[in-house]
User: Fold this.
Amino acid sequence: MPENIAPLPDFTRWPSFPFEGDMRVKPLADPVEVEPPRSGEDAADCVACNTPDESYIWVSERWRVRAMDRPTGLPMVLILECRSHLDIGDLPNLLAAELGVMTVRLERAVRSLDGVARVHVNRWGDGSAHLHMWFLARPYGRLQLRGTFLTLWDDILPVIPEQQWRENLAHVAAWLAEFGGKAIAEPPHIQWESPSTITYTDTEPAEQPAAPPPAEVPQPNTLNDVNRQQSPVDGPISESIPTQRTAQDPGATSTPQAQAPSHS
Assistant:
């Protein structure tokens, strides 16, 4: 008896669907009578509650933002969590109001990154009991990544460089810190490299003979000593100082003044 194969849904023909070729729908499993507990239903076993602030990129009194443990295919994938061990339907009015503000603020921070066109905000809630909101950045110009399958493309695309990833984390953390809280993520440090050895040339310049020390000249003690050291051409210092003449001195000679050039 031939197997009944369900027809493929229309979305498999969407341009954004990441797969092609022969596919078939999995058989639908039977429903269970009692669903198993989610991960971290008890706060004592909750991963989010037991993770220190150092593992997040930004923290505040009531909210924290964390990233993946390594770069992925998208420019940025972040998770917003509240500190209290609550799910979205359990939030009191204060945290519910702040969730809206934090969602808008984090979306703007991620969208401010270079090369980001849109930010997808998702909440599934089937994996962990602790409230966590996903923020996924779609690269600009990648129209094939639009829509529902962005999370699948994140695992398919080539991983972005780690330095760019860390720069993006630091940018988002600093953006959030402008409104309060504390930025944990820092930009990557510059890796300075210096040579381990210094190479010297084999040829060294020949040593130059040392110049003979200058002859010692006796220091004069009085003006007469200076006069005696002057040459006959120079004459004594006392005689080499001209006597100031006044304008009425008939023997005074005038020094010709340089004529300023005319601007014609």
